[in-house]
Amino acid sequence: MECVTMTSYSISINGGLHGHFKGECGLRQGGPMSPIVFLFCIEYLSRMLKERTSGSGFSYHPNCEVLKITFIAFADDLMLFSRADTLSVSILLGWLHDLEEASGFTVSPTKSNIFFSGVYGLLKEELLRRVGFDMGKFPIRYLGIPLAPSKVSLEQFAPFIDSMRCYLQRWNHKTLSYTGNVELIG
């Protein structure tokens, strides 16, 4: 049974085997199973975060307190929410560390941002130093859609509207079957 658990591969070039490398367990980032595994891990870790935040001194973001929202997950992206105090941010950072340990997913500091509202001076500097992320600026774009804590203006939607308009114009000029049209829409 050892051959089932210990795989190795060679490459056949012109009929001859060249090189040996071991197979590894895991999923490729961006592979079709990656988001599903991420969601399984998030489900487990959301329960862990709920445990950590209850009775620990964690302070919810003022707009998230009623529903007790601490994060939102999209495929393999996360948005975390808390009040801007060192204890709450430390709890979230500890949770991110647990996420890395449990799932193998890692936080990329170069692709991550922290956003503030009404936080200034030394506290802001301390939190920036602690998390190690760049400070983000609203509105942000997620999958082409502008996101902001306040109402988003029509001008901020202009790039998205223009790309959709171009897409629909290209589609209008194509003569496709009904099935082809359904595929373009989907």
Describe this structure in words.
A hairpin with a 2-residue loop joins strand 3 (about 70-75) and strand 4. By secondary structure, the chain is α+β, with helices and mostly antiparallel strands. The radius of gyration is 23 Å and the shape is extended. Strands 1-2 form a two-stranded antiparallel ribbon. The protein has helices at about 1-5, 35-55, 85-105, 120-130, 155-175, 180-185, and strands at about 10-15, 15-20, 70-75, 75-80, 115, 135, 140, 145. The protein starts with a helix and ends with a helix. Helix 2 packs antiparallel against helix 3 (about 85-105) and helix 3 packs parallel to helix 4 (about 120-130). It comes from Lithospermum erythrorhizon. This is Reverse transcriptase domain-containing protein.
What's the arrangement of secondary structure elements?
Elements: H1 2-5, E1 8-13, E2 16-22, H2 34-53, E3 71-74, E4 77-80, H3 86-103, E5 113-114, H4 121-131, E6 134-135, E7 140-142, E8 145-147, H5 154-173, H6 178-185
Parallel strand pairs: 5-6
Antiparallel strand pairs: 1-2, 3-4, 7-8
Helix pairs in contact: 2-3, 3-4
